Request: fold
Amino acid sequence: MMHKKLITALVFVSVLVGILYLMQRVLQLNTGHRGTDAVKGFYLEEPDSLDVLFLGASTMFCTADPKVLEDEFGIKSYDFGASAQALRLTRLFTEEAFKTQHPKVVCVEMLGVCKQLKVMDSSSVNYSLMDLPLSWLKVRECYRMTGGDLGDTLCLLIPFVQYKDRWQELTAEDFVSKPLELSKGAYTPDLIADERPDFSEYYDADTTEPTEIPADTYEALGEIKALCDANGAQLLFFKAPNGGFTKGESLAIEKLAAEFDVPYINMFELMDEMGIDLDHDFRDNTHFNCYGSAKATRYIGEYLQAHYGL
Reply:
């Protein structure tokens, strides 16, 4: 009798878990190029096949185009990041990437250098975490990011908890699996911004002091450097131009680069050299389009060849 009850209980739990899993698949957001496609596509790459890994937020995957880098320079790379990604999350992606890849160079776009991670901010955290496979590493980092709060940790790890109320806005499209857009993580449309981007907060500032870097960001960057050293990869910082980025933030990156002995490519100071046309090479105030990203990628490719022999 006890044996029969145990089997019944196991069947019940299995069915319940299966139902919850299917419900979660429907309820959770498909973040497309903001995360889903880039993250899932990364795991389709052959192990140890990448020369270069790009990490960071949308200013990374709208700047570095792996197709241009491979077609024109023979360098294999991947844009492994997500929209609005804080550097604390970039640290998680770095360690996750080293499970299957051992690139020679790891390039981190530094948009979030002075941004404080808001753990329960769905736009900055869920784009990164949603499609990252469940693992001990993911559990550990989520626990660290929430300061050991078990409830918040479970919210980050189980999308169903966050999206259980989304049933009211479901449409027929939510029940259809969408094919991945496999672009090696890049998003470089041929859109051209209606207005010239405004970079005045960088160019017009007379700031001479670096902006303060949050403690968790500083810690994350130190850990990224240690992970690269342990895996035989060279770390490279770069900053793509975007509206709202300040001279003080760039000075903060320069200070970090000197402290960690890491090169820093500041594209704000390279616009003329790269041949950037402000009226043609951006899709909005923050991101390159396909024309601008191709020019930026060619500069990166030449830099990688010159400094790392790739």
User: Anything to note?
Assistant: The chain has a mean pLDDT of 85. Residues 37-121+178-308 form a domain with the Rossmann fold fold (CATH 3.40.50.1110). The beta strands are 52-56, 77-81, 105-109, 234-239, 264-266.
